[in-house]
């Protein structure tokens, strides 16, 4: 805008409108009101910047107006206006205020006396609506304008407070703010599996011409498609998730919230938001136009949106979204559980598949025993198709159920982490000989710091009211091995997996008074300033051991 001309234009336009009131004979009340409304709208509007994307915040049921005029000297010039709703549908329209040919909008050369001006002021002004729209799609209006016309844009949200972006440009020759979509902007689904969907889309002309500053970003969710990146970001934030302000530009670790997971692999950046409304994934893959979305849930409908993003301007354009439903998971192979038999199950954490065990009851009371060996495991138990138990396992778990003869129980096990997990399972009648020994209140091993020396440490652990055998093992380790040893420990493995040199001693003890059922042991012959891993194994009547939680102790460096 050339502001010197602009400020001259405004008073003349106002004078033109004022003279219009006097030139019309006996105007009706409705026409007077409409004219006053037009004047009010004009003087309560904001200037819309040319060549810049403007964010407009709308309050419910309160219209907001912007206006613009063209540069002086341009009789006819093309312009375009792009409006992007970022949430709910909105209403917006374009009004044009045109003066007649004899009223150019500025003083003409020559005589400037008041009489000449007053004559021109009597010419009527024309106000018309040239465009209106209601919805939540991205809409662009393209038109031709004269320098004697003023444009008023009016925006209204009738559902709730929201925001939109508006982009006005009168320079249609030097490129576009928004990346260009191909002639066919649809996303094609070319492959569907149980946990994956493969997508492809036609290249954007912008990506082919400016590959260094353009990239594709994919949004995956379980609710619906989004018509703009702005709308997607707003929806994710309103659902309680935290989203970086720009999907393509702000994917950096320091912006991530606790409920977000960032994955970087093969020059591909993914962010996974986990919230109450489901999981939302964002993946930016450069200029590749084919992508396979992995790790989806079987038999689930997903919605896919592709956005092409200009890394220099942060502007984006949306392809036409699509959806697909993953295939149903095939019925898992079922392994039969037999009375008293122990089954050791290893679960693949990457595939996240259920492992199923089936047991037919020959007694009314059934006793299930689960011993978590490694990792994290989720167990789900049904009786005749109805759920009777569902929980995450921790250590040793006994589950006693009462039903009818010939009831069918199905036990489903699944690893809840990406690494492999394992668990031992036993099903038997309630009166069957127990697989595991009677357990103490805690399986922790305690060490006494004051009793540590350069050559020995003293440890203690709880026992039970039942006489049992306890074996102690030790292992020398380095400081950087501690975390790995504790994480990878197989809690189901017995002393047979240990080297003979690691065995310290075995002993029997019990106490009918549980408050006194504790024993201590001083392990000697150690090296000064050294880390040792200590394990205690408890053996019951069945001979199946239970491993206490490993304990790492460091001997004193100086004594």
Automatic annotation (TrEMBL):
The keyword ATP-binding does not apply. It comes from Oriolus oriolus. GO terms for biological process: nervous system development. This is Protein NDNF. One of its GO terms (cellular component) is extracellular region. The lineage of its organism: Eukaryota, Metazoa, Chordata, Craniata, Vertebrata. Residues 44-173 form the Neuron-derived neurotrophic factor N-terminal domain. Pfam families: NDNF, NDNF_C, NDNF_N. It is found in: Secreted.
